[in-house]
Structure prediction request, 171 residues.
Amino acid sequence: LRIFNQEGTLFGIPNNLNLASSYIRRMMRKRTNYVEDSFQVRCADIRATFKPHLITRKKVSRVVRKNLRNTCQEFIIEYTKEKDFLEVCQNTFDGTLQKEMLSKLKKVYPLSFCDIRILETKELQKIDLEKATTMPEPEVEDIQEIAEEEPEIIQESTEEETEKEEEVKKE
Prediction:
């Protein structure tokens, strides 16, 4: 994460996203194959390095692994062509990129795991800072507000049940 100061406001831009190696080790199983690749992609504004990691459900031949690797690379190149680096980082962090890629790769061979192991860039100086500061932040629901709403629903249902019980007792 690189932090920039623009007109007294601080904001951060990610320069790399890494997937924990312990997470990948946990996902690996016996009698499966994995496919790794590393390539440079041109986003709308800068170049980025992608290192996808795919795990198949069963052992597969070398031809299938090569086909998975090539399909993954073609998809990421097409995906990043019209998007800028910050949007690609946000989609990778959210998992939308991986979901779209998984649906495309399932047509080649079913996968048990599909993720971007490393996404990094060394060209942060070329990013348009004005555009980066005006990007809308993703909307996330507040967990406390959700937790407060649920007990009210439970209390309403218990009040209705007590009223019904009182009516039954009167009869």
DSSP finds six helices and seven strands in the chain. The CA atoms of residues 46 and 123 lie 6 Å apart. Residues 142-171 form one domain. The helical segments are 21-27, 62-81, 85-94, 96-105, 129-134, 143-170.
